[in-house]
């Protein structure tokens, strides 16, 4: 259960779809506009740190969104891997890749060396639970030259450069890895005085596991200087950032879970940026302060294909035909979402054009449909309302529907164990690895680790395996779309909407990163 919790935390680089966006010095697209920099920015975040800022769990994305951490690569607007800490890479025979590092420094002043990078990746492989990007992957890393690192997987992995863009595989300095006793995972002495001011950020220190502290040990344009539990964080500008000096001198971050309170903080001038404004609050903001971007997050109805009423394909087909997803996009999301036609949304340019509609078997005529339990979580405010609308639509088709709403952490284990007949959930398909094939394998194959629909279908497994064998990006994308069709034919998942994310941005603020992957929010160009 714990090995997959990070997949749902949270929640941007799509140049072709973003009007008025330009590249920041770190290569990320940001909201256009002129303005002087230098001041501190006040930022309201939707999700507080859940694991003491561990880079291996839900907080990995939080660290990347605030410009603290980076990996060897990042994703571009077409979903491809492009340079970050690695300036180039080549593939070797036998499953290895060699990455050439750019000249960069960690926030503790030490140099980013091949040994440090190899050590950081090795620590990630020993994390418990393992980062989502390493699910089913046996990875090793070693320094092989003055500026080169060889990364090898147990079996050939065409998606490795994409995988290394994951926020959970951020590169930290050797100082970041400590145990309670002051020894690193391999037993080497790393004791010293903690001057970071974030002793509470050391995930796992209480039980002697390898402690990881990203404060002052990452490579991004902002360094985590101080935290106040799960309520506030203070970040300062990193003067030696390889991508150039950030415009803002620092970030004063508040974690405000309630979407209305977060929006009110922006409207009253208490914060400069409020991320993830609920659709119900978007109309309360002045139009110039609203920034909206399509994302790779799809909300879907997952039907339990192994037990209960939806083990019958005809019943699944009846449920699929009963759902009117367009009503959700127009009413629940108030036009701030696109009607779901597949697993991959319009934010992915390679998945554009005509989208596949669910193509499972026709629903058989039935005298009545069975009773079922439909579950969802309230961490995302629209989901309970989506579930209520689906409840009405399914009841109209003759289903008896009992609705259950929980906080996500209390729902996940039961959902994965198949204790519900159906689950409404929002999934960022590109968040974990950036690789569509890895997402399909994890969510819809017999051995998948996050298979909410509990799909186990030979045609799906075969199509996903064929897609995984493709090395060329274009061929891999085409094969992923073919595998998507195989998944939809099972009727185990009914796509509902492709979400857009709405940020509230103060009138004087420029350079907020509009990222469809939900991995970044502030960067070197963010300022007021």
TrEMBL record:
Sequence ranges assigned to domain Solute-binding protein family in this UniProt record: 82-450
Iron listed as a keyword: no
Annotated region (Disordered), positions in chain: 180-215, 347-366
Protein name, UniProt field: ABC transporter substrate-binding protein
UniProt-listed InterPro entries: Peptide/Ni-bd, SBP_5, SBP_5_dom
Keywords attached to this entry: Signal
Record-linked PANTHER family: MONOACYL PHOSPHATIDYLINOSITOL TETRAMANNOSIDE-BINDING PROTEIN LPQW-RELATED, PERIPLASMIC BINDING COMPONENT OF ABC TRANSPORTER
Alphabetized Pfam families for the sequence: SBP_bac_5
UniProt organism field: Streptomyces mordarskii
Signal peptide start and end residues: 1-23
Gene3D superfamilies: Dipeptide-binding Protein, Domain 3, Periplasmic binding protein-like II
Bias-annotated ranges (Low complexity): 188-201
UniProt cross-references to SUPFAM superfamilies, sorted A to Z: Periplasmic binding protein-like II
């Amino acid at each position: 259960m714990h090995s997959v919790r990070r997949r749902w935390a949270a929640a941007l680089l799509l140049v072709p779809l973003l009007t008025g966006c330009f590249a920041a010095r770190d290569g990320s697209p940001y909201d256009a506009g002129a303005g002087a920099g230098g001041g501190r920015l006040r930022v309201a975040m939707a999700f507080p740190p859940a694991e003491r800022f561990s880079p291996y769990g839900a907080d990995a994305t939080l660290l990347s969104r605030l410009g603290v951490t980076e990996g060897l690569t990042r994703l571009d607007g077409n979903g491809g891997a492009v340079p970050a800490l690695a300036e180039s890479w080549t593939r070797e025979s036998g499953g290895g890749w060699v990455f050439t590092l750019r000249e960069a420094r960690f926030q503790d002043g030490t140099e980013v060396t091949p040994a440090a990078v190899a050590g950081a990746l090795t620590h990630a492989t020993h994390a418990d639970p393992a980062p989502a990007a390493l699910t089913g992957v046996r990875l090793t890393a070693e320094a092989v030259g003055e500026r080169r690192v060889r990364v090898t997987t147990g079996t050939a992995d065409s998606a490795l450069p994409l995988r290394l863009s994951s926020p959970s595989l951020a590169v930290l300095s050797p100082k970041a890895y400590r145990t309670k006793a002051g020894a690193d995972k391999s037993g080497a002495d790393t004791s010293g005085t903690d001057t970071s001011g974030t002793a509470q950020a050391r995930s796992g220190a209480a039980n002697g596991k390898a402690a990881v502290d990203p404060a002052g040990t990452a490579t991004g344009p902002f360094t985590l200087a101080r935290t106040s539990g799960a309520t506030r964080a203070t970040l300062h500008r990193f003067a030696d950032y390889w991508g150039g000096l950030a415009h803002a001198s620092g970030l004063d971050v508040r974690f405000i879970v309630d979407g209305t309170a977060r929006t009110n903080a922006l409207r009253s001038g208490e914060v400069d940026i409020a991320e993830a404004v609920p659709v119900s609050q978007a109309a309360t903001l002045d139009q110039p302060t609203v920034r909206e971007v399509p994302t790779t997050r799809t909300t879907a109805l997952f039907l339990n294909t192994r037990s209960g009423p939806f083990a019958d394909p005809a019943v699944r087909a009846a449920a699929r035909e009963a759902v009117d997803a367009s009503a959700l996009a127009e009413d629940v999301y108030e036009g701030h979402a696109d009607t779901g036609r597949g697993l991959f949304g319009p934010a992915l340019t390679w998945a554009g054009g005509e989208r596949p509609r669910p193509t499972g078997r026709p629903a058989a005529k039935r005298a009545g449909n069975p009773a079922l339990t439909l579950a969802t979580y309230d961490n995302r405010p629209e989901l309970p309302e989506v579930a209520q609308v689906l409840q009405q639509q399914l009841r109209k088709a003759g289903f008896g529907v009992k609705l259950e709403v929980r906080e996500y952490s209390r729902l996940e284990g039961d959902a994965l164990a198949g204790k519900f007949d159906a689950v409404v959930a929002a999934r960022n398909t590109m968040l974990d690895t950036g690789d569509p094939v890895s997402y399909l394998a994890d969510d819809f194959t017999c051995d998948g680790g996050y298979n909410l629909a509990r799909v186990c279908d030979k045609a799906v497994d075969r199509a996903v395996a064929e897609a995984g064998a493709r090395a060329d990006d274009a061929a891999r994308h085409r094969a992923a779309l073919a595998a998507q069709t195989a998944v939809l034919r099972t009727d185990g998942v009914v796509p509902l909407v492709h979400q857009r994310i709405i940020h509230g941005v103060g009138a004087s603020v420029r350079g907020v990163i509009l990222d469809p992957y939900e991995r970044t929010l502030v960067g070197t160009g963010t300022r007021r």
